[in-house]
Amino acid sequence: DQQVKQNSPSLSVQEGRISILNCDYTNSMFDYFLWYKKYPAEGPTFLISISSIKDKNEDGRFTVFLNKSAKHLSLHIVPSQPGDSAVYFCAGTSGTYKYIFGTGTRLKVLA
Amino acid sequence: DTGVSQNPRHKITKRGQNVTFRCDPISEHNRLYWYRQTLGQGPEFLTYFQNEAQLEKSRLLSDRFSAERPKGSFSTLEIQRTEQGDSAMYLCASSLGSEAALSRYGYTFGSGTRLTVV
């Protein structure tokens, strides 16, 4: 039972353009969603979160959109930079302490 | 504070051997978590401590696995009689106990211990 799905294993984007990473979920009880970024040989680092009562949260170049009716969220990175190249995981939580992660999307930003 | 520290970074062991990993969380964090990540998958929850109390264990954590957090500081994860299927990255994370802070800011993960069982 995969409660959080990231159907695109990889994405390539030109530097300066927009990167859009998608995530779908099945658990209606999730009340927070988070995005993490992971570089090779490092642990995941927190990027941005959104409450289920919001439809958008923005932090600098990063914006997360939530469509509850579609059970879909997306992460927009504008403009994309080569340093953004990493694996991005979305996660949902209903108990605040336990996250259910997706399988990740590998983003490559081409210079 | 240098963040969440995990040791060793890499461990190669023969099938059937016991291994122990250590995690030192951020000092003011009272919550500590263990996750496991296999190739091509996202991190999967294993267990969670609030101070020294282990509050939840995943079904993924068979009876060969045991975790402790004596005195609510560092934590250890032991795997007995390792199997090849235990090969994975074991991630430790910590956070403050505030639900609001946790939901809005997430946990801080360590760099992980990569276990290879041969």
Describe the 3D structure.
The complex is a heterodimer of chains A (about 110) and B (about 120). Chain A is mainly beta and about 110 residues long. Helices cover about 0% and strands about 55% of the residues of chain A. Chain A has strands at about 5, 10-15, 20-25, 30-40, 45-50, 55-60, 60-65, 70-75, 85-95, 100, 105-110. In chain A, strands 2, 4, 5, 9, 10 and 11 form a six-stranded mixed sheet that branches. Chain A has a five-stranded antiparallel sheet with strand order 1-3-8-7-6, with no helix packed on it. In chain A, strand 6 and strand 7 form a beta hairpin. Chain A is globular, with a radius of gyration of 13 Å. In chain B, the strands form two sheets. In chain B, strands 2, 4, 5, 6, 9, 10 and 11 form a seven-stranded mixed sheet that branches. Chain B has one helix at about 100-105, and strands at about 5, 10-15, 20-25, 30-35, 45-50, 55, 65-70, 75-80, 90-95, 110, 115. Chain B is about 5% helix and about 45% strand. Chain B is built from one helix and eleven strands. Chain B has about 120 residues and is mainly beta. The chains are: A mainly beta (about 110), B mainly beta (about 120).
Which class do the helix and strand fractions of chain B yield?
mainly beta
User: Mind describing the biggest β-sheet of chain A?
Assistant: 6 strands, mixed
Number of helices of chain B: 1
Provide the low-confidence segments of chain A as ranges: none
The total strand number of chain A stands at 11
Shape of chain B: globular
Strand content of chain B: over 45%
Q: What are the secondary-structure elements of chain A, in order, as H or E?
A: EEEEEEEEEEE
Quick tags:
heterodimer; A: 111 residues; mainly beta; 6-stranded mixed sheet; 5-stranded antiparallel sheet; B: 118 residues; 7-stranded mixed sheet; 4-stranded antiparallel sheet; 1 helix; 11 strands; 6% helix; globular
